[in-house]
Write a structure and sequence with these properties.
Layout (H helix, E strand, L loop, with lengths): L2 H31 L16 E8 L5 E9 L4 E14 L16 E13 L6 E10 L3 E10 L11 H16 L6 H11 L1 E2 L4 E2 L3 E8 L3 H26 L6 H20 L2 H8 L4 H4 L11
Antiparallel strand pairs: 1-2, 2-3, 3-4, 4-5, 5-6, 6-9, 7-8
């Protein structure tokens, strides 16, 4: 493949992630603005995202950067939707873990990352990340997963769980040649697993990485994953955001958020990748919930 085509693909992927970010921000701000009167926290003003550009250089002096978009509101206690584009060279100790980096340590990575922690314990937290990485190889990775915080909602027969899994199955079914749903669902269950506790972080979703079968089709699948998240999650929030909660349910939520912190600091590939490649620390750690409790 010639250099021009590679650059075109990089720019196309980056532009998509930025466009998806803007759509998600608009949808989440609309949710903030439609909390019914009489709902918990409805007397507070609706939140709005604040965008903060950032830049960095890696250990070779190569530049990169992105835009953090954060909101604290009356529905979302904390939500971040970030797009970043970084390039340079992988540090020597990291090269063996990345396809194509052992032959040539130079890389390019662009992607979107979303994490939402709602106030209301009845509303599940959600995470979505999709990315395009180029070394001597080129691939897409990412996925989305749902984390209900109340024990009675962390069931595979819960209506929110059923709806979320159906939404994540849709893009896989649209691209069966590159995206086998059962494989990606199992991959998600195994990936978002707290080994030290022997339990899943949430109820799962889909996860994939190093997907390079066909650029056009894997890119189309990655786009559809983002659109599936955009389609399902605001609906799940609206189904639950006006429900009253108890102090016991808030306490359960804060304890469950502790599991989120444990996973992100111990196992999350995105956290490790970002920190090892000179990423923006504030952006990387913005996925942490704002209030958390360990009993």
């Amino acid at each position: 493949m010639d250099t021009t085509e590679i650059e075109t693909r990089k720019n196309t992927a980056r532009a998509w992630f930025e466009s998806l970010r803007d759509e998600i921000i608009a949808a989440f701000e609309a949710v903030e603005g439609t909390l019914p009167a009489g709902s918990p926290l409805a007397d507070r003003p609706a939140g709005r995202f604040e965008r903060t550009p950032w830049s960095r250089t890696d250990h070779t002096g190569s530049p990169g950067g992105g835009v953090m978009a954060m909101m604290r509101g009356r529905v979302f206690e904390k939500v971040g939707v970030h797009v970043s584009t970084v390039f340079g060279e992988f540090a020597p100790e990291f090269r063996k873990d990345i396809p194509g980096a052992a032959e040539d340590p130079r890389f390019y990575a662009t992607g979107i990352s979303l994490i939402a922690h709602p106030h209301n314990p009845h509303v599940p937290a959600v995470h979505m990340n999709t990315r395009h990485v180029v070394t001597t190889k080129s691939w897409f990775g990412g996925g989305a997963d749902l984390t209900p915080v109340l024990e009675r909602r962390r069931r595979q027969d819960d209506p929110d769980t059923i709806a979320f899994h159906a939404a994540m199955k849709t893009p896989c079914d649209a691209h069966p040649r590159v995206a086998p749903y059962e494989k990606f669902k199992i991959w998600c269950d195994e990936y978002f697993f707290l080994k030290h506790r022997g339990e899943m972080r949430g109820i799962g979703g889909i996860f994939y990485d190093y997907l390079e079968t066909d650029w056009d089709e894997t890119f189309a699948f990655t786009q559809d994953v983002g659109l599936a998240l955009l389609g399902i999650y605001p609906d799940l929030v609206r189904k639950n955001f006006s429900k009253a909660w108890t102090e016991a349910e808030r306490d359960e939520q804060l304890v469950r958020r502790g599991r989120y912190v444990e996973f992100n600091l111990l196992y999350d590939r995105g956290t490790i990748f970002g920190l090892r490649t000179g990423g923006n620390v504030e952006s990387i750690l913005s996925s942490m919930p704002p209030v958390v409790k360990w009993p």
